[in-house]
Specification:
Layout lengths: L2 H22 L15 H11 L1 H14 L2 H4 L6 E7 L15 E10 L4 H68 L4 H35 L23 H11 L1 H22 L5 E9 L6 E8 L9 H67 L5 H36 L16
Antiparallel strand pairs: 1-2, 2-3, 3-4
Length: 438
């Protein structure tokens, strides 16, 4: 090939490569963003406001709150009226000494401590429901963040892959021109055509993946799946996360699910304490007033007790049931603690791996790969390497760029889950826990 032709081809390739490099120079925002770009903070706020499952969890907590009062209230009293000892032959007669008109009021009192334990159980369960709603909200924020970062990765990856395909098309046109001049083999042209087709197929996969991720994110935001979501932000920077011990300490103190598990264990304990007292009799106090029209009125006071003669098959079985329920909730609490701590260890390792690899790509791998492209381009201009070598080097650079984008998204997704497990993403104005003032 003539030096003039080779220099012209080299300028074409250099221009295409610089376009690809310029694409990746934008560190924080998806290329091609439109005015309707969705910020992560706005997506989280929208999900908190509009997610129907979060609304259901909050309503469930409110319903549980309404059970506290009734749980500690006395049974309803019983009021009765009657005509006592009326003669059968003449019910209207009132001159019989035992005939009277009565009014009677009876109140049953459970054994002392039963109502207080019943109320305590309802209070702990209501607190657990509210904390579980907080846990759902934290999980929702984590899921929104994860899908948001997934979209950001797909947006950036499509942009880089789109520029890569344009570069491959340029290489294909160059190869076809060189093949027409007889300076390259037909195999080089076919390889370039296959590379363009493969890039197109990869773009189709990314495009469909984005549609699916956007639909899922829309559902979390309470939107219609048909409502489009524009390009989104992606921050490529990664901070050093706290150590595992610190994360575990934060989760133990702040994770709503762990606090809810403790409340359910306390509720089960209160249920057991109530069942322990159920073997003792209830006390019923009855007041009665008898009006005798032609004689002195009478008053009655009675105290009665229930007889738990079937305690062996009823109350004691209930007590054992509640003892087992208490053990179950304590075991679940311990298991949730262990699972939380293990998951934090996994996520901490995942975050650190993504951070270190991303930094390695930024400081070492990508600069070296880009330097290799520049060297190959210079060598190509003087005929020392063929254009397929130049193509391979540039494809490697773009693959490393996409990998760094993936690592940034992976880092963000893992950090979002860590924040959910440690309670770090709970709103600052979260309502006070039920029972805090008791």
């Amino acid at each position: 090939m003539a030096p003039k032709d080779r220099a012209l081809i080299a300028r074409l390739l250099c221009g295409a490569m610089l376009t690809s490099v310029g694409l990746f120079a934008q560190p924080d925002i998806a290329v091609g963003q439109t005015p309707d770009t969705l910020a992560l903070a706005d997506a989280i706020a929208e999900a908190r406001l509009a997610n129907p499952r979060l609304h259901a969890a909050r309503y469930r907590a409110l319903a549980a709150l309404e059970r506290i009062g009734p749980a500690g209230a006395l049974p309803d009293p019983n009021l009765a009226f009657g005509f006592v000892n009326r003669p059968v032959t003449d019910p209207s007669r009132t001159d019989v000494q035992m005939t009277m008109n009565t009014v009677q009021l009876a109140q049953r009192f459970p054994w002392p401590g039963i109502l207080s334990q019943r109320k305590a159980r309802a209070t702990h369960l209501a607190s657990a429901d509210e904390l579980q709603a907080d846990e759902f909200e934290a999980t929702l924020v984590s899921r929104v963040t994860s899908l948001y970062l997934r979209l950001a990765y797909l947006d950036r990856a499509q942009e880089v892959l789109g520029e890569t395909r344009n570069l491959l098309r340029d290489f294909r046109r160059v190869g076809e021109a060189m093949y027409a001049l007889g300076t390259v083999a037909q195999q080089d042209v076919l390889q370039a055509q296959v590379a363009v087709a493969q890039a197109t197929a990869d773009l189709v996969v990314l495009s469909q993946d984005r549609i699916a991720a956007a639909a899922r994110l829309s559902s979390l935001l309470g939107r219609s799946a048909a409502q489009p979501i524009g390009p989104v932000f992606l921050n490529l920077d990664a901070d050093v996360p706290p150590g595992v011990d610190e994360l575990i300490e934060q989760a133990s103190a702040n994770r709503p699910a762990l606090q809810a598990a403790r409340q359910r264990a306390l509720a089960a304990e209160a249920g057991f304490r109530e069942a322990q007292r159920a073997v003792y009799p209830d006390i019923t106090v009855t007041l009665a007033y008898g009006n005798r029209p032609e004689f002195v009125d009478l008053a009655t006071l009675m105290v009665g007790v229930s007889l738990p003669i079937f305690a062996g098959s009823k109350q004691q079985r209930r007590r054992e049931e509640m003892r087992v329920a208490w053990s179950i909730e304590e075991a679940r609490e311990i298991d949730l603690y262990n699972e939380t701590h293990a998951r934090l260890g996994e996520l901490r390792a995942r975050v650190e791996r993504a951070r270190i690899l991303s930094d390695l790509y930024r400081t070492s791998i990508l600069p070296q790969a880009e330097a290799s492209v520049e060297s190959a381009l210079s060598a190509y201009q003087v005929g020392e390497v063929d254009y397929m070598t130049l193509l391979t080097n540039q494809m490697t650079v773009n693959r490393f760029r996409i990998e760094r984008i993936r690592l940034a998204a992976e880092y963000g997704e893992a950090m979002a889950e860590i924040e959910a497990l440690t309670g770090a993403n709970r709103p600052a104005n979260a309502p006070a826990r039920i029972g805090d003032d008791r």
